[in-house]
Design goal:
Low-confidence stretches: none
CATH class of the largest domain: Few Secondary Structures
CATH superfamily of the largest domain: Ribosomal protein S18
Shape: globular
Distance between the termini: 36 Å
Largest sheet: 4 strands, antiparallel
Helix content: 25-40%
Number of domains: 2
Order of helices and strands: EEEEHHHH
Bound molecules: zinc ion
Strand order of the largest sheet: 1-4-3-2
Number of strands: 4
Radius of gyration: 16 Å
Number of helices: 4
Length: about 100
């Protein structure tokens, strides 16, 4: 869904439906967020699949929030558990210095 809205603030923000409000010129583009795992109909995420998990942590190694990634609540719970499992097995970092 794309909707044009008059500019209100210059800061990047989110409305209460989780839509990202981006600033572009004098207009704000609202883009609907979707869960990439629901889109691909993924049921369980493998802890060895580091290419996918790497995108869900910050550069400091923290688990990114639903607000940032657009993941649904069900998949976010699975992801949190899987990342913690991968951390315990030293496949992923607990923390990382930049
Ligand atoms: Zn989902």
């Amino acid at each position: 869904m794309m909707r044009m809205k008059k500019k209100e603030k210059t800061k990047k923000r989110y409305d209460r439906f989780g839509k990202k409000i981006e600033e572009k010129g004098s207009f704000i583009i609202m883009r609907k967020k979707y869960c990439r795992f629901c889109k691909d109909k993924v049921k369980d995420i493998d802890y060895k699949n580091l290419n996918v998990l790497e995108k869900l942590i910050s550069e400091r190694g923290k688990i990114l929030s639903r607000r940032n990634t657009g993941t649904c609540a069900r998949h976010q719970r699975i992801i949190a558990a899987v990342i913690k499992r991968a951390r315990f097995l030293s496949l992923m970092p607990y923390t990382r210095y930049i």
